[in-house]
Amino acid sequence: MKFITAHQDLWQHAAGEDGPQPHPPARDHSLLSLAQWHAVRDTWPAGLATGVTVPNDVDIETLAADLPRLALVVLQFPKWVDGRAYSQARLLRVRWRFGGEIRATGDVLVDMVPLLARTGFDAAQLRPDQKLEAAERALGYFVGHYQGDVLQPLPAFARDLPNELAQAKANADNFSGQGI
To answer: H or E stretch including 30?
Structure first.
């Protein structure tokens, strides 16, 4: 998983002095709101790396036809207890086979990182009070899972568990004693 900070983000919000521009200029690595995307998608040039920020109360299916044109979908966690963006990410990966980047933003905590990875996120922008080092350790915190997910669709009974657990233990040994 890639962790994004505001200082290193290649993607630029299409906003003016007074908030989002209703019809932003077409440029590479533009990050548009869903309303902006709907306003410009018919005239937006093909081939530009384009991202869309989707609120977690939107039916992600409304974006399905546009997914081949998008390089990034940003899903929002307005509160850490609101998990609808997990479902949106899973639908993007499993149902619509979205191959671009799915990024978590908002109230993203270190404790959420393992589930973010399991549901299809490949990037996250942590809440400012969260530590990057702890988030990286959290990815190797759980050795295995019984149920399948977007990373490993097979449940435990259908996998080669002895081999899988040996590899996971070797990875976990890298972080032993460090805690989260």
So the answer is: strand 30-33
Read off the pTM. Answer: 0.82
Instruction: For residue 122, give both structure tokens.
Output: 């490949």
**DSSP code at position 25:** P
Distance CA 72, CA 102 (A): 6
Burial 101-123 (b: 16+ CB within 10 A, else e): bbbbbbbbbbebbbbbbbbbbbb
Cβ 125 vs Cβ 75: under 8 Å: no
Could you report the per-residue pLDDT of 2-19, keeping only the tens digit for each? 999 878 888 988 776 666
- Say how far apart CA 29 and CA 148 lie, in whole Å: 33
Rg (CA), the chain: 18
